[in-house]
Input
Amino acid sequence: MSFFDTDENLQRIGTLLTEKAQAVFRERDVPVEQFGFVLLQSAPGGGRPKGAALRSGWRSYPCSLVKVFFLVAAQAALEAGRLSEHEELDRAMRDMILWSSNSATNYVIDLLSGTTGDTLLSEPEMAAWADRRQVVNRFFAQFGWPELAGINLNQKLMDDLRYGREKLGLDRSPEGHNALTPIAMARLMHAIFDGSVLTEARREKVQKLLARDLASPFLPRGAYQVAGYLAGGMPAGTQIWSKAGRTRWLGDERADFRRHDALRAVLPNGASFILTVFSQGEAIAEDDGFLPQLGSITAKEILAL
Output
């Protein structure tokens, strides 16, 4: 049982997204099974959202989408006093989301877990290190959300291969790499904007960090994650909150060639939606037009409802 109710209009839009994705994937000789999404609209008064989905439970290497989970965990730790507010942490949380910085993310992970990744450790020390790295998994497990089944949040973000403790930790982790599903990402995005995953003040901090501006001078920069992503298909005047991610070749087929996105949009007419898209395949990861096309289809159809 999902946390949302199926909706005829959103299912129709979902069919259009599926047909578009299938056409693109077939044209590029990419298996169509390497695509999944969740589309949501919140219910008035805070009731169950309505939605549509395809392969919502597809477990995939999440690229930088996982950074939203680390941000929420850090805000909760600050609220509980397990972390202390300071300028470097604020800067890291901003750059982790705004510029998708892996260095900033790994600093946040170090603070949350009390671990670092440099020199080798003795066997008992390595076991303790691996246990501390489960801190974010334990934090989200306490919510009991069935949509989070199968996710993993215990690895740092790398631009290529891993070395030292990070390599040993990955090899020994039963869960392997970080992993998310379209439904897990959608569940968290809904909680950030329409739920109670954090206090209201902390949710507002997260929302502010996720905000993107279609008039920003940074728009042409790929690191801003609008051009080439779902937000790139939104009409002028749309309010956007998003986090995307892409991997090219990393030397590890478990993580190579993904392109994902999680978007919340408020359209010029006030209609809002959340769309999470997961995709895999070299031709898709390199295609800057694919996700904007899906975003444009969704926005056009929801504006017409």
The longest helix spans residues 8-27.
